[in-house]
Amino acid sequence: QVQLVESGGGLVQTGGSLRLSCAASIRTFSGGAMGWFRQAPGKEREFVAAISRSGLNTYYADSVKGRFTISRDKANTVYLQMNSLKPEDTAVYYCAARKEDYTDQRIRTYDYWGQGTQVTVSS
Predict the structure, then answer these.
(1) Which of 27-56 are b and which e, b meaning 16 or more Cβ less than 10 Å from the residue's Cβ?
(2) Nearest Cα to 34, choosing from 64, 19, 63, 54?
(3) Which of 57, 71, 79, 84 could form a disulfide with 52 if both were Cys (CB 3.0 to 4.6 A apart)?
(4) Is 101 buried (19+), middle (13-18) or exposed (0-12) by CB count in 10 A?
(5) Do 93 and 48 contact (CB within 8 A), yes or no?
(6) Comparing C-alpha atoms, which of 86, 91, 93 is closest to residue 123?
(7) Strand pairing of 46-51 and 18-24?
(8) Please, are residues 11 and 5 in contact by the beta-carbon 8 Å criterion?
(9) CA triple 35-110-87, angle to 5 deg
């Protein structure tokens, strides 16, 4: 079973930055695409960003384009650099991974999920 462990969440003021990390256990994970999703209170989980195995292909939700950057290293750790944060970015952020190397925004296409990390942006 692949385990994903997120870190880096916290409280930040509007306009601030945070960097989330997600480490995947590599024992059984062959390394497909990885992504970030988020869920705000009372709302459905939504796609944020995804990255291919090579790191060459990335895909972002319109709401975070130009502010967030997803990246990945060879150790199957994925990062989400979040700049110019807004109160509406407040949510629990989840790391996800899939067996296929295809960046996808659909939740059901991801095979493994982390426990989530809270990001709170104060106004």
Answers:
(1) eebebbbbbbbbeeeeeebebbbbbbbeee
(2) 54
(3) 57
(4) middle
(5) yes
(6) 86
(7) unpaired
(8) no
(9) 40
Instruction: Give a three-class secondary structure readout of the chain.
Output: CCCEEEECCEEEECCCCEEEEEEECCCCCCCCCEEEEEECCCCCCEEEEEECCCCCCEEECCCCCCCEEEEECCCCEEEEEECCCCHHHCEEEEEEECCCCCCCCCHHHCCEECCCEEEEEEC
Q: Do 12 and 117 form a contact (C-beta atoms < 8 A)? A: no
Which amino acid is it at 33?
A
How many residues comprise the chain?
A: 123
**103: its two tokens:** 């960046």
111-123 per-position pLDDT tens digit: 999 999 999 999 9
- Tokens coding 114: 């982390």
